[in-house]
Write a structure and sequence with these properties.
Keywords: Phosphoprotein, Transcription, Transcription regulation. The protein is of the alpha/beta class. It is built from five helices and five strands. α3 runs parallel beside α4. The chain is globular and about 30 Å long. The protein starts with a strand and ends with a helix.
Length: 122
């Protein structure tokens, strides 16, 4: 079973993502801030990580760098989640180790399609 972590201070975004993605082949775990997410990754690295571009406690790039610096047999696919296309934020996230971005709010078809492309890239 694949594990996906949604890091977002909005419980609504996390709940919607969990409802859309959660099922027999995906376990969705949640973190409300960057520090909690880093601790959770240290204990058990997920396969996919979606990082909010506007976390209350850390820059998304710092979360990505910390995750990438961890020694783990799992090298997660990481996306930054943004409310609008911001090329500078996307480039900073990619330099830190992200594979791409996801726009929010997202619809069920948008999120499922983005995850299909992540599976093909794995």
């Amino acid at each position: 079973m694949k594990r996906c972590m949604f890091i977002d201070d909005s419980s609504v975004i996390r709940r919607v993502a969990k409802r859309i993605l959660g099922g027999s082949d995906m376990l969705v775990i949640e973190a409300a801030n960057g520090l909690d997410a880093v601790e959770m990754c240290t204990a058990d690295m997920p396969d996919i990580i979606i990082v909010d571009g506007a976390l209350p406690d850390m820059q998304a790039e710092d979360v990505i760098r910390r995750v990438r610096a961890m020694e783990s047999p799992i090298q997660p696919q990481i996306l930054i989640s943004l409310v609008e296309v911001d090329v500078a934020s996307i480039m900073r996230a990619k330099r830190a180790g992200a594979q791409g971005y996801l726009l929010k709010p997202f619809t069920r078809p948008q999120l499922l399609e983005r995850f299909r492309t992540l599976r093909f890239a794995a």
